């Protein structure tokens, strides 16, 4: 395919911070890759190089953050020549690609959910996408529907299930006045706690626990965007340990 215009759209959700969402490349040095890196969305695009290799066309744009939250995110890529609109969850970025070419020339397959191993270092170091996608549309073609009806020829649909498995974790939402109180475990030498959290607030108490027999307490809170751990022990001289990260 040699195209002047492209419109690619899809929705995805994942709990992984790395993964190739789709990839295509050609023999003229053209390529397009959409992937997650450190839970951010990265679009890599090159509309080709000349025979002398003097035209540097690689363009990379990053958008979004914390996209590994297992919520649906929508992506739209609109290209007209070197002009690109990249929209993530209704937030649009406009940019122009480097180089001098206007056409995207893809000789090989376009792959969704990963990229084939080509022997290049870039293909070996990239992880395949792990999660769910829906409403994949490539230049007017409903890829999701075609794959489900096995109308893509030639294609290699490997171990796909046309459903989205929800994670087994159960989130808890706290407002400014709510809290969760659970019974302690007396006569235990070990105090251990772990949890995941996400918040926009720079301050707040995450955990508080009194030790039995008036031995002290432990407190975990967010203070100006940093997590602080305070352990107070009443029966030793150096009775307080502070850790901030």
From TrEMBL:
Gene3D superfamilies the UniProt entry points to: 2.60.120.200
InterPro entries on file: ConA-like_dom_sf, Laminin_G, Neurexin-related_CASP
Pfam families hit by this protein: Laminin_G_2 (PF02210)
Annotated CDD domains: LamG
Domain Laminin G: 1-164
PANTHER family according to UniProt: CONTACTIN-ASSOCIATED PROTEIN-LIKE 2 (PTHR15036:SF33), PIKACHURIN-LIKE PROTEIN (PTHR15036)
UniProt protein name: CNTP2 protein
Lineage: Eukaryota, Metazoa, Chordata, Craniata, Vertebrata
């Amino acid at each position: 395919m040699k195209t002047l215009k492209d419109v690619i759209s899809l929705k995805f959700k994942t709990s992984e911070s790395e993964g190739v969402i789709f990839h295509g490349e050609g023999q003229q040095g053209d390529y397009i890759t959409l992937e997650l890196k450190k839970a951010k969305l990265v679009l890599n695009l090159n509309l080709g190089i000349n025979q002398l290799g003097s035209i540097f066309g690689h363009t990379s744009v990053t958008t979004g953050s914390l996209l590994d939250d297992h919520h649906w995110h929508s992506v739209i890529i609109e290209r007209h020549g070197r002009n690109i609109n990249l929209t993530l969850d209704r937030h649009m970025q406009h940019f122009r690609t480097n180089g001098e070419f206007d056409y995207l020339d893809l000789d090989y397959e376009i792959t969704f959910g990963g990229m084939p191993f080509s022997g290049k270092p870039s293909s070996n170091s990239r992880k395949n996408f792990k999660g769910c996608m829906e409403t994949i549309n490539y230049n007017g073609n409903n890829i999701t529907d075609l794959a489900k009806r096995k109308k893509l020829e030639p294609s290699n649909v490997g171990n796909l299930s046309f459903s989205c498995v929800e994670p087994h974790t159960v989130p808890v939402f706290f407002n400014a006045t709510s809290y969760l109180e659970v019974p302690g475990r007396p006569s235990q030498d070990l105090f251990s706690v772990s949890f995941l959290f996400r918040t926009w607030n720079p301050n707040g108490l995450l955990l508080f626990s009194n030790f039995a027999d008036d031995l002290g307490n432990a407190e975990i809170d967010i203070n100006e965007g940093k997590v602080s751990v305070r352990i107070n022990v009443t029966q030793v001289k150096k009775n307080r340990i502070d850790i901030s990260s």
